[in-house]
Design goal:
This protein folds into two domains: about 90 residues, Alpha-Beta Plaits (2-Layer Sandwich), CATH 3.30.70; about 90 residues, SH3 type barrels (Roll). About 20% of the residues lie in helices and about 35% in strands. It has five helices and 17 strands. It has a six-stranded antiparallel β-sheet with strand order 12-16-15-14-13-17, with no helix packed on it. Strands 3, 4, 7, 8 and 11 form a five-stranded antiparallel β-sheet that branches. Strands 1-2 form a two-stranded antiparallel ribbon. A hairpin with a 2-residue loop joins strand 14 and strand 15. The longest helix is centred in the last third of the chain and has 11 residues. The radius of gyration is 28 Å and the shape is globular. It starts with a strand and ends with a helix. The C terminus is likely disordered.
Length: about 220
């Protein structure tokens, strides 16, 4: 590679020209992952806790500056003496979520009340940012409650509002409609009240083919 030097007037100075071998020029060909390995990137994970320790674990996580998310819902609890009070309970009993790096997992496991990360034999499974952020942004705008038994119904996709994009099963409850959303990783379901106009059916290819035949 030739480097040509110029005078102040822009004239070439051939006597000062020199040739630099290309082999002496360093070549930078490193990907972003080489500078920022995956173990430095934070991912959402589900954490399994001791029974009724979700809130305590969440507080410990905040105190240790570990990002966590504990979905809560409000319900009216009746005590044995007949008194009623509104309480906040975990939306997914026994679980909460943490966004940590690979190296921070050890610190999470050291938190009192944490039993393990949810995952497979190969390691802790990740949860998409979309699922967590959508759930977090929609909690205060909709009425959520745990749904223990998943009733078979029509599969629908939410097409409007803060939960847009999530998929669930449509149910009818008295005069309202509910969509049961299931977080596959922890096999936990919640029901959220929605307007029927905010959902659309998810039709399989078989159903689509039948509809086309009917039209023909």
């Amino acid at each position: 590679m030739k480097i040509r030097l110029l005078s102040e007037k822009g004239e070439a100075l051939p006597q000062l020209s020199q040739t630099v071998e290309s082999s002496s020029v360093p070549v930078v060909n490193k990907s972003v992952e080489q500078f920022f390995p995956d173990h430095r990137i934070s991912h959402w994970h589900a954490i399994y806790t001791s029974p009724r320790h979700e809130k305590r674990v969440h507080e410990h996580m905040l105190h240790r500056q570990l990002e966590s998310f504990l979905p809560l819902y409000r319900t009216v609890h009746r005590w044995k003496n007949g008194c009623k009070a509104t309480v906040e309970l975990p939306l997914f009993p026994g679980y909460l979520f943490a966004k940590v790096t690979h190296n921070e997992r050890v610190r999470v496991l050291e938190v009192p009340g944490v039993l393990c990360f949810v995952g497979s034999k190969t390691g802790a499974s990740q949860i998409s940012d979309f699922e967590i952020e959508t759930l977090r942004s929609g909690l205060h705008l909709r009425k959520f409650e745990p749904h223990r038994d998943l009733v078979i119904g029509e599969k629908v996709r939410i097409k409007a509002g803060p939960l847009t994009g999530l998929v669930g099963v449509l149910l009818r409850n008295a005069n309202s409609f509910r969509v049961v959303l299931t977080l596959e990783l922890i096999q936990q379901s919640v029901a959220v009240e929605l307007d029927i106009a905010d959902v659309e059916p998810i039709r399989s290819q078989a159903h689509t083919a039948i509809d086309i035949k009917k039209q023909n």
